[in-house]
């Protein structure tokens, strides 16, 4: 059973105890969750743990007196470090991967990238079922996916461990620079633990026709659908975008309880608003990071008020925002349900931050802290409400990659479990 209420006012609760109770509930119940449908991007991430030497190299490249893409990329990376900002840097540059590998050397590790695969990985670790849209079944892509992740085949659902590689890799890797707060180099000190993604091509979406054929029939028994990766669409190629929208519309007609659109960083900020409008009437929930909310609205105003505007823009009844030290939902739903979704998302992201990868060990790290200055829960009027809870925050996590994706997985898992409980 999922615990969704507390007799204490939120502001006076012991958050460690609250998260411990949530961890026990999720560990006990995850395997009984309904299916989560996840898409629509997948890639191989080359991850670099950035040290002082690498920062000095970037500083040297950035100081060169010319305007090539090499210098521009190095300067953009250092600017984001100075602003304590992560996110994604995109340039269509065929030589970009070779430049990155020549400059940075061999990656610390290779792992799966893309919000859908990251969410599926986090769910698989807990034994919660999901099925992933995956067109790219190259050896490179399959090698970084957790073997228990489920995909669609001609005869139904199978797992990555049983999948056979039938294609060659068609997409370049994404290059991820991971920074740890407190790292010193010749030009300064890293202020915030985060990561910067370097992307050099439009990957397109995972247009998996087997997934499109099977998942509308699975939707009535599923708990949620995750739509993500729309920032990978190739400019001018609207067909793939319409393909995703049409599939999500089929899910909705089939009775899928929750269709969540997770945003990402786009080369042009206005594209965030365009995507919200395109999914109006299809998605029932929208999610993003706090920095993406600022980019979408071009405002530093109160995040709850901004999120309410996004809800109206996208015609959804829920917008979820995740930040370093808190998460919040602006919604027209049951408060207890939304708070449990936030707690579970925060918990799973905190576990990943502590372990470096998704983990079934959900105990809160001893060094985790809770912010006091997070936005307060309150009624917003006209049936709308904001609920916000602090996250177990680590100043120096083992990894920052995939934390937002793991948070999303947690919210969808909690929602699915409560759908099951309500039907009993």
CATH architecture of the largest domain: 3-Layer(aba) Sandwich
Helix count from the secondary structure assignment: 13
Q: In order across it, which strands form the biggest sheet?
A: 7-6-5-1-12-13-14-15-16-18-17
Number of domains: 2
Mean pLDDT comes to 94
Low-confidence stretches: 4-12
CATH topology of the largest domain: UDP-N-acetylmuramoyl-L-alanine:D-glutamate ligase
- Radius of gyration over C-alpha positions, nearest whole angstrom: 21 Å
What structural category do the secondary elements indicate?
alpha/beta
Overall 3D form:
globular
What characterizes the major β-sheet? 11 strands, mixed
Task: Tell me the total number of β-strands.
Answer: 18
Helix content: 25-40%
How does this structure look, described?
The chain has helices at residues 15-29, 52-62, 69-82, 96-104, 115-126, 139-143, 209-218, 238-253, 270-278, 290-297, 303-314, 335-355, 403-423; strands at residues 36-38, 43-49, 87-90, 109-113, 130-132, 150-153, 156-159, 174-179, 184-185, 188-189, 194-199, 224-227, 259-262, 285-289, 318-322, 326-331, 378-381, 384-390. It has 424 residues and is α/β, with parallel strands linked by helices. The chain is globular and about 65 Å long. The chain has 2 domains: 10-42 and 114-162 and 206-423, Ribokinase (UDP-N-acetylmuramoyl-L-alanine:D-glutamate ligase, 3-Layer(aba) Sandwich), CATH 3.40.1190; 44-112 and 172-199, Adenosine kinase, small domain (2-Layer Sandwich). α2 packs across α3 and α5 (115-126) packs across α13 (403-423).
